[in-house]
Each structure stands twice: as structure tokens, then as C-alpha cells.
Amino acid sequence: MKEAMLVMLFGGAGTLSRWGIGRWTRHLWGDRFPYGTLVVNVVGCLVFGFAMSLFLEETRLSRPLQTAITVGFLGAFTTFSTFGYETFAFAREGAWLHAAGNATANFVLGLIAIGAGILVARIVVSA
User: Where are the domains of the chain?
Assistant: First the structure.
């Protein structure tokens, strides 16, 4: 029950963070491209890579807290379902360049961010 409560609380924080970043990016760059989704997916991948690498190396955090961070916060924070819908909507409207750009940017930057998170975790662990 404790783990479920932690996942719920961290999930709420992830959802609010995603919402806030979406509002912030629309304010900065407008809404003609789903920048908020791109930002949360890249940041989520970075943090997920860092967390998973750190959890494999470092066991100071309890298993329930690890689950709350990855499943709760990051599960609510990242938005690949939204990404899929937005990409499909571009394609349905015939905006193939936007659809391809959105898919490519999320995929490539997400993989780079996973690698960066793993690298930063290794640096932190070895420090």
C-alpha cells in the first residue's frame, strides 16, 4: 500500500510538471508545433536513463521509492501517447514534414538523452 501511495503522489507531481512545461513552451514558442511534448519526452528520457543507471549502481533508495520515481513521476511526466496522437494528426492533415520532424526529433533526441542520463549517472556514481 505504501508503494501504491508513493506512485500516486509522484504521478501527480509528474502530471503537474508535464502540464507546466506544456504551458511554458506554448508561451515561449507558440502552439504551431508540439514543443511541450518534445521537451517532456527528451527530459523524461534523460531523467529515466539517469535514474535507471543509478538504480542499477546505487541501492540507497528503497525499491518503492525507485518505483515511485520511474513508474509514478516519469510515467506521468513523459507523453508518448500524446506524441503519437500529435504525429498522427499532422499526418492526417497532410503535414508530412511536421509529422516526420516530430517523430524524428522525439526519437533521436530521446535516445541521446537516455545516453546522456546514463553518462551523468556514471559520473555521479564514480565521484
Answer: 2-126
